[in-house]
Specification:
By secondary structure, the chain is an alpha/beta fold. It has two domains: 213 residues, Alpha-Beta Complex (Quinone Oxidoreductase, Chain A, domain 1), CATH 3.90.180; 133 residues, 3-Layer(aba) Sandwich (Rossmann fold), CATH 3.40.50. It has ten helices and 17 strands. The strands form four sheets. Strands 3, 4, 5, 8, 9, 16 and 17 form a seven-stranded mixed β-sheet that branches. A six-stranded parallel β-sheet has the order 12-11-10-13-14-15, covered by helices on one side. Helix 5 links the parallel strand 10 and strand 11. Helix 4 packs across helix 5.
Length: 357
């Protein structure tokens, strides 16, 4: 049964089969007056997709169709939708709904709403399980649907809708800008956005990595230099010199003390990398010498998403992206490549019109 009653996609059926997606049909939630149906044209492959598909984050909802860096064409809009019309090129990130009524939702903190629903793996009030962008269509609330600037190419814009905003929001909220020294830990899919957006906001930007093998890439992205954290006493020349550090590192067992020592008094270390396994190594004493703060960040607000997309246009932020035609085989290959750490720096699934005819 075709759209609008049934959507088609590629699902993961169990953690041990994350490299073996299968064709899957599913029914979306009932269409609401603020909903938008989108015919998908491209979807980024995010680290969250891998951690969900392989069970690393404890997902227990199967089958699951991942994908939350979605761009497509609006087909149908609800009776109360005002921000989008049929035919618009739009995007959906990692959230499709919240309560819209709490203090968080009313103060640009909707990604922290206690009733948020993820683009995939979330459960609507009627019991429907949300499914993601490795599929023919997605149904989302207009508040979580964004017009995509015409200057941004589809395959490059898609990864900005999760990875991009995840890096941008903590930079924006914590004062990255002219006269500030910002460190980005990790030169991967998140880190490559962190470097570019920190530079675009006007900050003096440094990349921190365990090796120098990506140094040329980091400099091309806008970093002033790369600090190699595997060197002896690597931290000593940089102590108390950073205004903000954003960690995108997808590793566990990080010795946090040395990183906190890089911060000026009462400055912040914000983690947006969420690895599987154990957490950081940290002693209370590591916080005392400079009164450093540790925090995290979850996605970004609608307002920040719109700002970020326009900043990408204005400052020429470019996703370093590889594309693959969407198919069961290529979804498996994309997740395997991500698992093996071989992506430079994002992957976007394309050619949806050929797969979902």
């Amino acid at each position: 049964m075709p759209y609008p009653d049934t959507f088609r996609g590629f699902a993961i059926t169990a953690p041990e089969k994350f490299k073996e997606p299968v064709p899957y049909e599913f029914k979306p939630k009932p269409f609401g007056e603020h909903d938008i149906d989108i015919k998908i044209e491209a979807c980024g492959v995010c680290g969250s997709d891998l951690h969900t598909a392989n069970g690393g984050w404890g997902n227990d909802k199967w089958p699951i169709v991942p994908g939350h860096e979605i761009i497509g064409t609006a087909l149908k809009v609800g009776s109360k939708v005002t921000s989008v019309k049929p035919g618009d090129r739009v995007g959906v990130g990692a959230q499709v709904l919240s309560c819209m009524e709490c203090d968080d939702c009313k103060n640009d903190n909707e990604t922290y709403c206690a009733q948020w629903i993820d683009t995939y793996g979330g459960q609507y009030r009627d019991g429907t399980l949300s499914q993601g962008g490795y599929s023919s269509h997605v149904r989302a609330h207009e508040f979580y649907t964004f017009l995509i600037p015409k200057e941004l190419e589809t395959s490059a814009a898609a990864p900005m809708l999760c990875a991009g905003i995840t890096a941008y929001s903590p930079l924006r909220r914590n004062g990255a800008g002219p006269g500030k020294k910002v460190g980005i830990v990790g030169i991967g899919g998140l880190g490559h956005f962190g470097i570019q957006f920190a530079k675009a906001l006007g900050a003096d930007t440094y990349a921190l990595s365990h090796s120098a093998k990506k140094k040329d890439d980091a400099l091309a992205m806008g970093a002033k230099d790369v600090i190699v954290t595997s060197a002896d006493d690597w931290d000593v020349p940089h102590r108390r010199s950073f205004d903000l550090i954003i960690s995108t590192a997808n590793v566990f067992g990080l010795d946090l003390g040395k990183y906190l020592g890089l911060l000026k008094v009462h400055c912040k270390f914000i983690s947006i990398g969420l690895p599987d396994g154990d957490g950081w190594k940290l002693k209370p004493q590591d916080l005392m010498t400079n009164g450093a703060f540790i925090g995290s960040s979850h996605l970004g607000s609608r307002k920040e998403m719109q700002e970020m997309l326009q900043l990408a246009v204005d400052k020429g932020v470019k996703t370093w992206v590889e594309t693959m035609p969407v198919s069961a085989e290529n979804v498996g290959k994309a997740l395997a490549k991500l698992s093996d750490g071989k992506v430079r720096y994002r992957t976007t699934l394309v050619d949806y019109d050929k797969q979902f005819k």
